Amino acid sequence: MSLPAKLVLVFSATAAAAGLALAAGRVPTAATAATVAEPPPEITVYRSPACGCCKAWATHLEQNGFTVKQVELEDLSEIKAQAGITQRLASCHTALIGRYAIEGHVPAADIKRLMAEKPAVAGLTAPGMPQGSPGMEGSRKDPYDVLAFTRDGKTTVWASH
User: Fold this and answer.
1) Structural domain of residue 28, as residue ranges?
2) Is 21 helix (H, G, I), strand (E, B) or coil?
3) Fewer CB within 10 Å, N- or C-terminus of the chain?
4) Strand, coil or helix: what is 30?
5) pTM metric for this prediction
6) φ, ψ for residue 137 (rounded to 5)?
């Protein structure tokens, strides 16, 4: 009797994870296979060298499990144009992750949801610089929306904060 291919694949992945755990001197558990998952994709943040809130947002991403590469540029207009960021959607920094653009102070949880759901959008934006958003923390917290946007300029509310 042969096993279905999907079951064999799952068994093989679990066995490989258990083997890695044993090689590392750990006792394999049912959770071992889940811990061998590939790391999240790197997010590249394009920002002005003088902008402190952009640095704080990159730190927010790192604290939430993202691998962050920071690229300092004096002029972000070319990156924004290539990513489909219009003036109406713009903020102070632009990031790229996978096939998506992230504009402004979008919370890490919203980016994780984007990467899990993989909708047919160009990216997410938190237009302007909303007070109280990641990297813009302070004494005031204004309500704001994170918008999903398409290349042709259509937007929908992705999350409200």
Assistant:
1) 5-35
2) helix
3) N
4) coil
5) 0.75
6) -65, 150
Work out how many domains the chain is built from and give that number. Answer: 2
Angle at CA of residue 121, ends 67 and 128, nearest 5°:
70
Q: Please tell me whether residues 111 and 129 are part of one structural domain.
A: yes
For residues 29 and 47, membership in a common domain is answered with: no
> C-alpha angle 38/39/43, rounded to 5°?
140
Say if residue 148 is in the same domain as residue 101. yes
Q: In what order do the strands lie in the sheet with 94-97?
A: 68-72, 43-47, 94-97, 100-104, 123-126, 145-149, 155-160
| Distance from the first to the final alpha carbon of the chain | 55
pLDDT digits (tens, 9 = 90+) for 79-96: 999 999 999 999 999 999
